[in-house]
């Protein structure tokens, strides 16, 4: 039996994507489960022109900060996962997670504001 005709195993690297969100922007990043968080940050660096050391990725909704040296699979990041991107500020601290949801701006049923 040849290698190419064997059935797919769970170890096969199936392409997936994650949604990386920051403010009102969502980046759809194509990846495989064995990629490390550092590799994802390198892809983001090309998109947002921010060094990998100034990026922090946080798995939502539990707000778990993802470890650069671990793979997506190691940290249970699944296909279509939502990951928040925060950037390092001038004071060397990371900004707070700021993800805008479409419902944040929906008018109230009576046509007035949400206030």
From TrEMBL:
It comes from the Eukaryota. InterPro entries: Ubiquitin-like_dom, Ubiquitin-like_domsf. Residues 16-92 form the Ubiquitin-like domain. Residues 93-115 are annotated as: Disordered. Residues 100-115 have a biased composition (Polar residues). This is Ubiquitin-like domain-containing protein.
């Amino acid at each position: 039996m040849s290698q190419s005709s064997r059935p797919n195993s769970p170890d096969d690297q199936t392409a997936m994507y994650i949604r990386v969100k920051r403010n009102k922007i969502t980046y759809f990043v194509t990846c495989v489960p064995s990629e490390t968080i550092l590799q994802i940050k390198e892809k983001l660096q090309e998109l947002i022109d921010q060094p990998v050391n100034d990026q922090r990725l946080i798995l939502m909704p539990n707000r778990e900060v993802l470890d650069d040296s671990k793979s997506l699979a190691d940290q249970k990041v699944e296909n279509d996962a939502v990951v928040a991107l925060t950037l390092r500020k001038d004071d060397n601290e990371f900004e707070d997670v700021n993800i805008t949801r479409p419902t944040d701006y929906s008018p109230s049923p009576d046509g007035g504001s949400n206030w």
